[in-house]
Amino acid sequence: MDFGLTAEQKMIRDMVREFAEGKVAPGADRRDETGEFPLEIIKEMAKLGLMGLPFEEKFAGGGADMISFAIVVEELSRVCASTGITYSAHISLGAAPFHLFGTKVQKQEYLIPLCKGESLGAFGLTEPNAGSDAGGTQTTATLTKEGWVINGTKCFITNASYAKFLVLTAVTDKTKSTNGITAFIVPTDMKGLTINAGYKKMGLHASNTTELFLDQVVVPKENVLGKEGAGFKQFLSILDGGRIGIGAMAVGIAQGAYEKALQYAKERRQFGKTLSSFQAIQFKLADMAMQIEIARTMVYKAAWLKDQGVKFTKEASIAKLFATEMCMRVCDQAIQIHGGYGYMREYQVERFLRDAKLLEIGEGTSEIQRMVIAREIGC
Length: 379
Known about the structure:
The protein contains eleven helices and ten strands. The chain starts with 6 loop residues before the first helix and ends with a helix. The strands form three sheets. It has a four-stranded mixed beta sheet with strand order 1-4-5-8. It has a four-stranded antiparallel beta sheet with strand order 2-3-7-6, with helices on one face. The longest helix is centred in the middle third of the chain and has 37 residues, at about 230-265. The chain has helices at about 5-25, 30-35, 40-45, 65-75, 80-100, 105-115, 230-265, 280-310, 315-340, 350-355, 365-375, and strands spanning about 125, 140-145, 145-160, 165-170, 180-185, 195, 210-220, 225, 270, 275. The radius of gyration is 21 Å and the shape is globular. It comes from Ammoniphilus resinae. Pfam families: Acyl-CoA_dh_1 (PF00441), Acyl-CoA_dh_M (PF02770), Acyl-CoA_dh_N (PF02771). This is Alkylation response protein AidB-like acyl-CoA dehydrogenase.
């Protein structure tokens, strides 16, 4: 087993790290304060060929692997988690459904623009009464002679304000439980679709988080994505890949917080010594470095398994669960090492902690991950 990065992966890492430090990091605090969406950064990423990175070149993608995708998410999140989640959701939730389940025509019409960065990807799954219980979807789609008529509400949807179209789930047959859920492609300019981005959030202020209100939205019959009634199984598959992105985000945020804590510990003097010379602080930093490295290895393993075309559900859940809970611990300790300054926005680590909390919730809560792992090990 080779744990080293390939030459291509190293090149991508170095390129994105330079971009993140030079273009993304300088405005991260301002965007956190104002909630300004990093649209210009996304446009620059499109020019770098990142918006379709793990998809085939025939769809205007980069032809890279899932580990490269994880590396990009990590490097972005290391300086700005809002940018990291925007990119991760675009790839793993917005574009992946078309790549996995789209027809040739749908890939030409929708996947290529996503890979070119002409639209951001968004996926409408969560509802006010269907979060962890995604099988409890209440949005409905009824087939008429005009097409599918969709009614319902979605919440906590990333990127929808900047998407020209999105995928969402709706119940097409109430008698079949989860086998009656279907995925649909919905252009965001359709009559009856309202997108509201009014959430007041704890963190990730510069990411776009929206509600979707669908009132008699009519889409053509050919806008079914995949097979009718297969939507539930499809989004479970999509979430497996999405959990790799969330795990990579967690590694990136934790790495950024750790680096700031390490730098501060080397510079800050107390009792005539640097903080880093005290064993209590050394042990904190050692634990942080250890946990980050373990999480990164697990995220890369899950990504590698996906690239091999083998089942990776358990590994993706383990990576997501361990990395996100690790991230919260590391960010908490980074604040502790900073002392009172860690509580102040000037030193940034409090932003990292606020941004980190969502990762234990989105793409399946920590509790859901434990349920998935338990099922996969035969409990």
